[in-house]
Specification:
The complex is a heterodimer of chains A (168) and B (495). Chain A is mainly alpha-helical and 168 residues long. Chain A has seven helices and no strands. Chain A folds into two domains: 88 residues, Four Helix Bundle (Hemerythrin (Met), subunit A); 40 residues, no CATH class. In chain A, 76% of the residues lie in helices and 0% in strands. Chain B has a domain of 231 residues. Classes of the chains: A mainly alpha (168), B mainly alpha (495).
Chain lengths: 168, 495
């Protein structure tokens, strides 16, 4: 009888691969927005894998930053570009070739690395937890953290200045 | 913890926020007051920083933030640059859209520079550099009705983001291999770390980020375009404050964190320096835009400064600091004139400066002093910095052929620079043809900024000792350097 975590791992891993595939090569739709949505699903399934690794903070950041902020940016760009032109574009032979080489090389490196890796006895659970991260941010790195607030203020002022229609 | 160590940074941040808020109550007709207020605040902090009010040496936030001779030396110059730049903005308070925010952003960039001068940790260094760079993204594209300014802003944004990516990746590798980001702790383990390729790659990537800030070859490509496109006042601050902040951090990383590795990499700095100064000098020859010319000149000057770092000696670092001090006054004087001309004629082409000697004697004097000092002619500030720098390089030339080559390259660079700097001076006093000989009005604030910078150029040129003593103290404060100092040749005689 497999454990629940094992079932969840295979479910999330399978979902990640499936959605990743549908993101780049969807046989039903060539619409970039659909691809972007599948990318969101890929990212969320990966967040699930992080949770299984006890990296709760990383999982939360993954959803907040990548599935949230970065994807909104992607969608903005897609909507600003002309989608029709993208739909008409046929597969580029050279690009497929380069992509295949890249995937092959990466797969080779990964299998080699995994083959030679010693199996871990136990996953370190404290890494990626929120508490030590918060602690270090508010003790050792308090000053850079505070300076960031000035940086955010500058960014905010700058965005308003550069994007507002009328300035006095 | 001793919060008084951060008094300058805290007060300057408050001043910046105060300027932002002050805009709400000050009527548009009295907008000049904002500029004067910000400049006065910066001036008070400057006298406080170089006077008795300077915080005593010490560290805060667990060694993250350090106050020493080096940080105090740089902070004085950063505040001075901010003061002069703020004075320059006053005459354009009606034409700059969002004037109060412009002043506030200059102050916030200065806060970033102050933190950079005191950063003793890779994390604080990164955050301070980002604060400077992000502020400059906005300052460069401030003149958003002019496409040149926006183009410069986008170029700076893309190149800056790329450089930041390199740097943060490098810092991650450094942290991964050293287990700490503190400069002193890294210095304590540097002999073991020097054998770790991951650490060395991390350090190289960090140098990429710093190389971008100081515009050294091969990370210089943004400088001419951004210098030319940005509003002249922004360029003035970019060429002085931002560049000096890059060198402050480069000195600290090179000589406080990893002095042993720097000694090994002396030739890397040397090659970079030679390429940078030759690139800047040769490309400057054909320029017609004075702002672009200053961009290439700024690249060339980064090259000379890198030679001083490559010398890896107390004299070399002292020369770098002295050179930077003189350079800041010199460039500020030059840009005070360029910004006045750009505001009056809307152009920075050499032809816009034709006959300046008759149109405005004070502007002509300012630009001439600046260019002559940049060319390294006594008794200007630029001469003494170059002299010390080449002397530090020459000290190694006898034993190492590389340094001899660098010395020759530097001499070639100086000769070429005479040509292009004097091309502009000739146009000022002996123009080929002058269409317009109307007088260019110069307001009080610009006049004050100009007089301040010219006086600085002459004072440092005639009494260099005042600066060299401070520079030597600051250089000696880069701790492990003192061991090298014993072997270095005796201090240069001052006249």
């Amino acid at each position: 009888m497999p454990e629940l975590t094992d079932i969840l791992f295979y479910a999330f891993a399978g979902l990640t691969l499936l959605c990743g595939f549908l993101c780049v090569a969807n046989p039903f739709s060539r619409n970039p927005v659909t691809s972007a949505m599948f990318l969101v699903l890929t990212i969320i399934s990966m967040a699930g894998l992080y949770v299984l690794l006890h990296a709760f903070f990383l999982a939360a950041i993954q959803v907040l930053v990548y599935a949230g902020a970065v994807m909104v940016l992607f969608l903005f760009v897609i909507m600003l570009l002309d989608i029709r032109e993208e739909e008409r574009r046929k597969l580029n032979g050279a690009a497929v070739g380069v992509g295949a080489i890249a995937v092959g090389t990466l797969a080779g490196i990964l299998t080699r690395a995994l083959w030679h890796a010693e199996p871990l006895a136990k996953v370190a659970t404290s890494e990626g937890a929120t508490r030590p991260l918060g602690k270090i941010l508010f003790t050792q790195y308090l000053l850079p953290f505070e300076v960031l607030s000035i940086l955010l203020l500058v960014a905010m002022v700058g965005v308003i200045l550069l994007s507002r229609k009328e300035l006095k | 913890m001793n919060y008084s160590l951060l008094s300058l940074e805290i007060l300057l941040t408050l001043l910046g926020v105060g300027v932002l808020l002050g805009d709400l109550w000050i009527p548009a007709s009295a907008r000049k007051l904002i500029g004067y207020g910000a400049a006065t605040g910066a001036g008070i902090l400057l006298t406080y920083a170089i006077g008795s009010g300077a915080p005593a040496d010490g560290t805060a936030f667990g060694g993250l933030f350090v106050v020493d001779a080096l940080s105090n030396y740089f902070k004085g110059f950063f505040l001075l640059a901010a003061l002069v730049v703020l004075l320059l903005t006053v005459s354009q308070s009606d034409t700059i859209k969002g004037y109060a925010e412009y002043c506030a952003l200059i102050l916030f960039a200065t806060v970033g520079m102050l933190f950079a001068a005191s950063a003793n940790d890779f994390v604080l260094m990164f955050v301070a550099l980002e604060l400077i760079t992000v502020t400059f993204f906005v300052l460069v594209s401030y003149d958003r009705n002019r496409s040149g300014s926006l183009e410069a802003g986008v170029k700076y944004l893309i190149m800056g983001a790329l450089a930041s990516a390199f740097m943060v990746f490098g810092i991650a590798l450094i942290f991964g291999s050293a287990g700490t980001t503190n400069f002193y702790e890294i210095a304590a383990h540097q002999s073991t770390l020097a054998k770790s390729p991951v650490f060395l790659i991390g350090l190289l990537l960090t140098l990429v980020g710093l190389g971008f800030k100081i515009a050294a070859v091969p990370f210089q490509m943004w400088a001419p375009d951004v210098y030319q496109g940005a509003p002249a006042i922004t360029t003035a601050f970019l060429a002085t404050g931002s560049k000096a902040a890059g060198f402050a951090l480069l000195l600290r990383v090179a000589f406080s964190a990893v002095p042993e590795i720097t000694a090994h990499w002396s030739r890397l700095f040397l090659v970079m320096g030679v390429l940078t100064l030759l690139y800047g000098s040769f490309c400057a020859i054909a320029q017609r835009s004075v702002k672009r010319l200053m961009g290439y000149s700024s690249i060339a000057n980064a090259g000379y400064l890198l030679l001083g770092i490559a010398a890896v000696s107390l004299n070399g670092s002292t020369a770098v600091l002295t050179y930077l001090g003189g350079y800041i006054f010199t460039v500020l004087a030059g840009f005070a004139v360029i910004s006045a001309i750009a505001a009056h004629t809307g152009s920075d082409d050499v032809s816009a400066f034709a006959g300046l000697g008759q149109r405005s004697p004070i502007l002509a004097t300012g630009l001439t002093v600046s260019l002559v000092s940049l060319a390294g002619i006594p008794p200007m500030a630029g001469f003494f910095g170059k002299f010390l720098l080449l002397k530090a390089v020459a000290a190694h030339a006898g034993t190492e052929r590389f340094f001899l080559v660098a010395l020759l390259a530097a001499c070639v660079g100086v000769v070429i620079s005479l040509y292009y700097y004097f091309g502009v001076i000739r146009s000022i006093f002996w123009p080929r043809s002058v269409a317009d000989l109307t007088v260019i009005p110069v307001d009080g604030a610009t006049r004050l900024a100009l007089i301040l910078s010219i006086a600085g150029v002459f004072y440092i040129g005639i009494f260099p000792n005042s600066l060299v003593v401070g520079a030597r103290q600051a250089a000696a404060g880069l701790a492990p350097q003192t061991a090298v100092a014993a072997k270095a040749p005796a201090a240069p005689a001052h006249h």
